[in-house]
Write the structure tokens for this entry.
Amino acid sequence: MPDDPHPGGELPAGALAPRATWRVSVDVRDLADRPLDALRLLLVADVFRRLVEDLQGGLVLLAVLENAAVPSTTTREDAAKALWIRPPLARTCSPTEVAALLGAPPNIVLVPAVPSNSTAGAPDPGYTLRVAAVIPPHGGTGLPPSGLPAVFDPLALRLALLRFPYPSPAVLTTARLHRAEETLQRWRLKVADWEDMPPAPMHQHSVDAMSAALVAGLDTVTVLKLLHRMEVDLHLASGSKFATFAHLDRVLALDLCHLVGKVRR
């Protein structure tokens, strides 16, 4: 089960109006030595983007504000790809270029909860999401430069981070990463099994509750808790579970259909 019972943060009222276009800036300057913090900022932006584009039918134009080319940049891009984080429209090291790259000033800016040394000159957004830091296992001892724990499926790290509200520190432990990987493997097996069952519509009450949580504050904690409940609900048709899990995976991006058609019985 999720480790943190608290909900997500907040989004501005009406921020996720259907078919809207949003301009988003993600400020990862001065996070070269904090790769997990940078990845978490990009992950929160990715959840927002997937919600807008895949569930709301809108468009997100996203720019990453970073330092001038440093050795960690390519490593971070590779790590983001491993976490299924969609690439940005543009990258820049100049705050004044963000509006030009996006066509207008950003509606939303994502920044570290603890301000960096480069906050001066950052874009002036309509709304700011402050993303808390990641506390890695063992204080980060032995982590590669990307911040990805090498022995785990990268999407297990994505799942582990989604189990924390973005305004709160994400306290990772080896045990939590193991539980995330076990959940990921179990859900993929079950989704493959449910897909073989008679088709059924999504469980609309649960979908509405999960969508409301995401729209209110990117509350992936509540979404994951509801999916856990659906998983063990003996009264819910397997086909309905499959449809619901597959639908929400458009935002969670955990590759839950990875084993569909691959599991031999």
